[in-house]
Amino acid sequence: xxxxxxxxxxxxxxxxxxxxxxxxxxxxxxxxxxxxxxxxxxxxxxxxxxxxxxxxxxxxxxxxxxxxxxxxxxxxxxxxxxxxxxxxxxxxxxxxxxxxxxxxxxxxxxxxx
Length: 113
Known about the structure:
four-stranded mixed beta sheet, 41% helix, globular
C-alpha cells in the first residue's frame, strides 16, 4: 500500500494527493503533526534515498534552529529528522520498497502508475 507522509497544509503534499486521486492510486496519508515518525522509518527511507534529498535545508525550521551553523554530518542530520519532522522534505512517498521525496509529476508517472 502506498503511503504519503507530510503535513496537510503543504502545497507539495496537496499536489501529490491530487495526483494520486486523479490517477486512482489508493494511498494512506500520515501527517507528521498528528503521527510524528521516529528514527526507524527515517532509516528505512535512507536506504532508498540520500540524506541530501530527505533533509530540507530550505525551510523555516532549518533556519530557525540555526542548523547551518552546526555543520552537521549525515548521522547528525538523520537524528535531527527524527527529533524534528518538519526538517523532512515533503512529501515522502513509500511504495514497494521505493522512496520518492518531493513532488515531481514526471517521476510519479514513471514510478507510481
